[in-house]
């Protein structure tokens, strides 16, 4: 029996059937002798996540420096548009680590009974490690993020986290139990610290740094294609600053034939190469956009994946996740489910009232002690949408949720409040929308109930 490499069409079909973050295992292994535009399109898919992350970094560094912890002081709102699909369950803190001068140490106090997690991502958006409630417990700790090739010793009270890259995105999430708990969560965040490991010397042989943020408005993280062929200049700078995994060599060899190599400026290449790269940006962006759409078929579909956070060579999954849920964590830490269609296969729209029913407590999202769950509504751009009661998510911490006499729970989603059910109402925009279910510290994979029009 012979096997054949999947074509772009079959790969994309597989991706779309599984939906957002449900692309694992599809791969994008195209023939090495594919036309230049196809190679460029594959290169765009490959570079989408790291370029998006680098642009997000540039936007973040406009307000703070490298190796400095920025703390969110309020829950996300519709004005929170730096990173797609923000949650409203936790306060974020964030830092952009540059390890070329040596290890950086994260210090956290005893966490009491408040959930927290600190996620470390490489420039390719893989999750390298997690520190917090599930992995290291609630006790105080110090954790040194150690760059490649560093041979120093950490103090006995410091846990080393070796990383394979020189630039790391640190994201902390601290549970907020409700609007009245924001101040307390903010106070907890102020106890987190970030500092260089004392007494260390810079590692030998570090690569060049990522480009400094440009003055004025940084490039838009939500639209990496906006600069056309200069997308590949951004990718080439990343390749120089953070050498890619060896598994990427086959694709990078194809890009090298078009002048896309570490530190180069492909936008100034030969006319033929520039034309192929320009066309590849458009074709690749269409592939990513389509792959990131949660399907309406089969009816009642929720898209999810157990492959988030460690993408390997599944570049399309990586790109689609970056477009719709940048910095999604490992499934062991949090599960994400998205839907934009009802039980009949019709697109969700705020002009209809929908009901989600959990027949028994055992049917609620399964989380470990200290974990929690929520459903969040997003507009078509995957950002929060204004509503009259400033409620953007509903979940296990929502006050005054009303259960039915038989113990079941109904949640309602619509643009206008359903009569007599407002405590269980999650507002939606008048037009199309997407819902994301989140489970923090999940115990088992789970299937959310479908949306039933009322």
Automatic annotation (TrEMBL):
Residues 1-31 form the signal peptide. Keywords: Signal. Residues 66-194 form the DUF1254 domain. Residues 200-222 have a biased composition (Pro residues). The keyword Amino-acid biosynthesis does not apply. Residues 196-226 are annotated as: Disordered. PANTHER family: BLL3101 PROTEIN, SIGNAL PEPTIDE PROTEIN. It comes from the Bacteria. Residues 333-443 form the DUF1214 domain. This is DUF1254 domain-containing protein.
């Amino acid at each position: 029996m012979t096997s054949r490499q999947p074509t772009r069409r079959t790969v994309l079909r597989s991706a779309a059937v599984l939906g957002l973050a449900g692309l694992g295992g599809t791969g994008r292994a195209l023939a090495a002798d594919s036309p230049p535009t196809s190679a460029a399109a594959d290169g765009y898919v490959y570079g989408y996540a790291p370029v998006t992350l680098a642009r997000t970094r540039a936007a973040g560094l406009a307000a703070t420096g490298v190796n400095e912890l920025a703390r969110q002081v309020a829950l996300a709102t519709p004005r929170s548009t730096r990173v797609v699909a923000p949650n409203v369950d936790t306060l974020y803190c964030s830092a952009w680590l540059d390890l070329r001068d040596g290890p950086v140490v994260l210090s956290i106090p005893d966490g009491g009974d408040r959930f927290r997690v600190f996620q470390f991502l490489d420039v390719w958006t893989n999750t390298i490690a997690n520190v917090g409630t599930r992995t290291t417990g609630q006790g105080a700790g110090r954790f040194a993020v150690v760059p490649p090739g560093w041979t120093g010793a950490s103090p006995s009270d410091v846990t080393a986290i070796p990383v394979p890259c020189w630039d790391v995105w640190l994201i902390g999430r601290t549970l907020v139990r409700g609007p009245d708990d924001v101040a307390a969560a903010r106070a907890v965040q102020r106890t987190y610290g970030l500092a260089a490991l004392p007494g260390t010397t810079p590692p030998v042989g570090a690569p060049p740094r990522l480009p400094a943020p440009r003055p004025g408005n940084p490039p838009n993280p939500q639209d990496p294609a906006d600069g056309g062929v200069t997308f590949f200049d951004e990718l080439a700078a990343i390749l120089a600053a953070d050498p890619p995994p060896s598994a990427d060599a086959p694709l990078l060899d194809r890009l090298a034939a078009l002048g896309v190599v570490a530190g180069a400026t492909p936008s100034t290449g030969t006319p033929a190469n520039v034309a192929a790269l320009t066309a590849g940006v458009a074709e690749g962006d269409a592939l990513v956009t389509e792959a990131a759409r949660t399907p309406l078929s089969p009816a009642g579909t929720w898209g999810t994946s157990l492959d988030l956070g460690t993408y390997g060579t599944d570049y399309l999954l990586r790109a689609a996740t970056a477009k719709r849920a940048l910095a999604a964590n490992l499934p062991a830490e949090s599960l994400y489910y998205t839907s934009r269609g009802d039980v009949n296969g019709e697109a969700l729209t705020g002009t209809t009232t929908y009901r989600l029913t959990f027949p028994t407590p055992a049917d609620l999202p399964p989380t470990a002690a200290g974990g929690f769950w929520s459903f969040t509504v997003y507009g078509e751009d995957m950002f929060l949408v204004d509503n009259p009661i400033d409620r953007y998510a509903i979940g296990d911490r929502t006050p005054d949720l009303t259960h039915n006499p038989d113990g079941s729970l109904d949640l309602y989603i619509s643009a206008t409040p359903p009569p007599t059910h407002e405590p269980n109402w999650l507002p939606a925009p008048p037009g199309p929308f997407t819902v994301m279910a989140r489970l923090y510290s999940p115990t088992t994979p789970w299937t959310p109930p479908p949306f039933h029009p009322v």
